[in-house]
Amino acid sequence: MEKNSRKLSNPWLIILGTVLIQISAGSFYAWSIFNNGFMLKSGGTVQAVNGVKKIVGGLPAGSVSFTFTVGMLFLSLATLAGIPLAKKYGIKIISIFASIIYGLSILGLMLVGKNSSIWLLWLFGGVILGAMNGILYLTTLTNAIKWFPKRKGLISGVCVASYGLGSFIFKYIDMAIAGGAGAITAQNLDRVLFWWGTLALLLSVVGSFFLKNAPEDSASSLDTNNNSNNSIFIDKTNFTTSEMLHTSQAYLIFFCLITAVLF
């Protein structure tokens, strides 16, 4: 069955699609370049305070930067739902769905303006953007690794590197779109958000069409061959989401993630 499934798809095209999605999702890590833009657009002005230029008024700097923290929290939580949904509806459908919402949430940030509530920024830039990012990141990464059970290290390295590369690539794209100002301002913020959202959406949607669910027995068959004398180890390391939530280790990881994003 595994051989037949592999003949139906070119696994390397699936990796290509995964890389495109990872680059798109990784663009979220360039969030810091938008902080001043949101502060200025929400009513802040640049003033000299004790000889140092600062943005006064508008949304508080700490609250704006906290948006990324909210995003990281919901990214972590959303990974619990991503893989079960991909198994139920198919990796392609879930990725397309998450890609569209991911892109629209970036465009939704254009609604932030003068006198806007910080909750609007946290909703689009934290909750929705972070959750869709988590689904795109983990579901496609896990699926890609399953297609190459003998090259898990290589494939995971390529995908995670693409995720990290996304912030690097989009930082320069965003700054180029911002123009000669060399920074995100109240005047160019919406333009940069529009192109970030549009490019991220297109990149991840195109990548989604290359995806196909990996054979469920691909990884397990190899592990069984390599660990034929250690079946207990295999049974103890392969957990469903529900089983994982019944282990103490899962909540220790949650504790680490929450404290990491809060402090």
Automatic annotation (TrEMBL):
One of its GO terms (molecular function) is transmembrane transporter activity. It comes from the Bacteria. InterPro entries: MFS, MFS_Riboflavin_Transporter, MFS_trans_sf. It is found in: Cell membrane. The keyword Transmembrane applies. It is a multi-pass membrane protein. SUPFAM superfamilies: MFS general substrate transporter (SSF103473). Keywords: Membrane, Transmembrane, Transmembrane helix, Transport. The chain crosses the membrane at residues 12-34, 66-86, 93-113, 119-141, 153-173, 193-211. Pfam families: MFS_1. This is Major facilitator superfamily (MFS) profile domain-containing protein. The lineage of its organism: Bacteria, Bacillati, Bacillota, Bacilli, Lactobacillales.
